[in-house]
Every structure is written in C-alpha cells, then in structure tokens.
Amino acid sequence: MALLSLEQELKSNSYPGRGIVLGRSADGRYAVAAYFIMGRSENSRNRIFVADGDGLRTQAYDESKCSDPSLIIYAPVRVLGNKTIVTNGDQTDTIYEGMDRQFTFEQSLRSRKFEPDAPNYTPRISGIIRCEKDGFNYALSILKSADGNPDSCRRFTFSYENPLAGQGHFIHTYVGDGNPLPSFTGEPKTVGIEGDIDSFTDMLWTSLNADNKISLFVRFIDTADGSTETRIVNRFGDTPKAD
Hints:
Elements: H1 6-11, E1 19-24, E2 30-38, H2 42-45, E3 47-52, E4 55-60, E5 77-80, E6 83-87, H3 91-100, H4 105-108, E7 124-132, E8 135-146, E9 149-161, E10 167-172, E11 189-192, H5 197-207, E12 213-222, E13 228-234
Antiparallel strand pairs: 1-2, 1-10, 2-12, 3-4, 5-6, 6-7, 7-8, 8-9, 10-11, 12-13
C-alpha cells in the first residue's frame, strides 16, 4: 500500500480541524507524535500551546478575549510512565486517570463521547504511544456522532504493533470546511514520516492552512532510552499577552 504524503494531505484541506499523527521516524529510532489545532472563530484562534512539565496545555493568548474556555482550554498531552497520551480535548485527563487505575485505553474512553458543540458534534480523537523495552506500539481512537445524529455515539479504536520505520497514521476531526463541519470518516490515514524533528515540524507547520492554523506540537521519543525532544510552534508567539 502506497503511503500518503502528509504534506499533501494538509495542503489540500483548508480545515482539517485538530489532528493527531503517530508513527515511527524514517531511521527507526524514534516514536513520533504530533498534534495541531486550527480555528475559525475568534475564541478558537485565541490560543497558544504551553509546555506543562513533560506534557502540554492550551492557554488563552489574550485572556480578555476568551469568551468560552470549556472546549478550548485543556491538556492535549500527558505522560503516564511509559505512555504518552495525546488528544483533542479534556479526555486526556480521562485516559490518564483511567489507565492509572489499570483500565485500558479503550475502557478509559467509555465514559466519554463526541463534543457537545451542536450542530458540529466534533469527534473526540485520542492517541497513545506505549514504549516498551523491546519496542513500542500505538493506538488511535475516534468517538463520533452517527453521521451528525447525537442520539448515537460511534466508537472506533485502531491499534498498531511494531510500527514500521518511516510510517505513521493521521487522524483529524473534520473532512474539511463546511457548515456544519463534516466529521472525519474511515480509518486513520497511513502517511510517510520523513526527516528529523526540525524538518518534520517545519513541514507540518508550513503545510497547514495559513489562515486557520493556530498551534503545533511535535515530540520525538528515543525508543532506546526514552529521552524526548519536543517542538512547539504558536501562530501568536510563545508568551501570553499581559493583562
């Protein structure tokens, strides 16, 4: 199966919404995680990514313009032992707390469903990387409405063991722009992972739509010793505006 070009996937979609990429670097050394957010409204665009220990949180860039923090302020990335959790909402905490009580990734998400933002009913997308002594594996999940009907929640989990070098999987919230926004469909897309962390970060950021991109997080995890390198890119800079 031919790998899709992640660059072309992003350039051809003006509004994929929020997206997660998990995979393995081309040299086979690193587990790779990336997460980006986009926004159309002033409230959605008023955000930056901020490092929070070994995790990540969103923060209002201008507090005076933050009209509704409920679905935009959360921790997209948390680390629990050898597990790196990446999501597009506060279900990061749900997964962290569930797995800390010995629930599985899938079991931890049973208490959650799509976002309550009618009429879009934005899917909740989540990913997890588990690093072991003999390698690593990852999984992606999407919780979505039944083709826009909020009476039913559809739950899908995709697991990938012993990922191949230079390959990854990409899942995002929306097929593209629209009103209401059409939810992602099908399996995560199999994409190529190329370059080192800096070239990969630059490719992602420059490929995202210039009008809609907000923030990007990329992490490379060394599978030999668990050490990490992280890059954060914000459209509005790394420091929030003073009151």
